[in-house]
């Protein structure tokens, strides 16, 4: 009933969109007026973001039954919208997207889910991040005859979330068989759980369309990625410059005023409004602008029940959640771009090569356009140090020099002569707590003396000795050499995990 009433209100009061390309010299001004409802600001910002428009300034007012917004926008190159045809097309798209019969659907909440559509099956994953996780997930999907046509992966604060669109390898259509979907979910959940006994993966099935970036925000918010921990190297992330977020109450108007100052970037407003909406806050007024290289956002909010932020604990939670919303999309790691003809198993092969060369993926965008794969990966060294230029050269040789291009800042690459692997006498740091835990996990994993595997070098020889580990030969070894003692295994081929281990010893967990 509420949904039908809302549609009736929209039909009686259709959104009004006015685009002015003359009054501002460096931006196109878009004014949107509409009947007010919870989430309307997110709908408008999402539509503008989906049009690849950059919002440089905005004024929002929705104090009452009517919603009035003014946005200054440019394209990705910083230019105003061009000809009249483009302007009219943008205006029509916004009207249709916000109208009563629009296809806008608020994404349902779930942690790990599979939803079928006519073209592909959408798989959603959340779990604890670890080196090689995307490689393991891709290998499982490949073994289940699933072709990944689109995917987006985010990692933040030791958590990982992914939305992947897959098709059947043989037919190229969506996977709809319930038994097969259940098998996919079961095996992927096993991969996500890994050895983490504190925060395992959950499964759910839901039908309906989803907005990928919207879902990723919801999934990471539900997974509490805003909760910071000093474990697993998370403390190192705290050393990075943090967004400046403040929350104060305006007692006279019963508003809470949220102020954000941080580095400007595309989709920033979408990210912050997503989180405020997910936290059930209503934005009554807002002022958005740019100050040099930085962004300034000011929101006047109340909870959906009409109350402002009422406690210090709630205030801190708002700050933490907005910081996470700003950070989780951004990656400062080395950017690699892949462009080649699409084929079944491509993502599995590429991420396996990354893993074998001790690279871990912190963010990924996988798309397929007209039979061509256009993928972007952000990678870092699995040990936490700068990526070795020699490693990147090896990866590009394996994948294809013309297929994989380095797009990041060259300063992010460690010169070959500075690599600790280039000389046995190079100075090495002590193993991190994460590396120590990984080594112990390997001992637990390979307790069966019958297993023969290659294991990657967790430490350099000097670091291994400093951490109380012994060095083993660079060749396949039996786990008899590991049982009952702590060891670091030197091997150039990368960490043998997931499907590689299962093929050697199916009972390994």
Automatic annotation (TrEMBL):
InterPro entries, alphabetized: ACR1-12 (IPR040217), ACT-like_dom_sf (IPR045865), ACT_dom (IPR002912)
Residue ranges occupied by any ACT domain in the UniProt entry: 29-109, 122-199, 335-415
Domain of life of the native organism: Eukaryota
Low complexity biased stretches: 421-430
Key words of the record: Repeat
Region feature Disordered, mapped onto this chain: 409-430
Gene Ontology molecular function terms on file: amino acid binding
The protein's role, per its UniProt record: Binds amino acids.
Protein name per the record: ACT domain-containing protein ACR
Organism: Spirodela intermedia
Lineage: Eukaryota, Viridiplantae, Streptophyta, Embryophyta, Tracheophyta
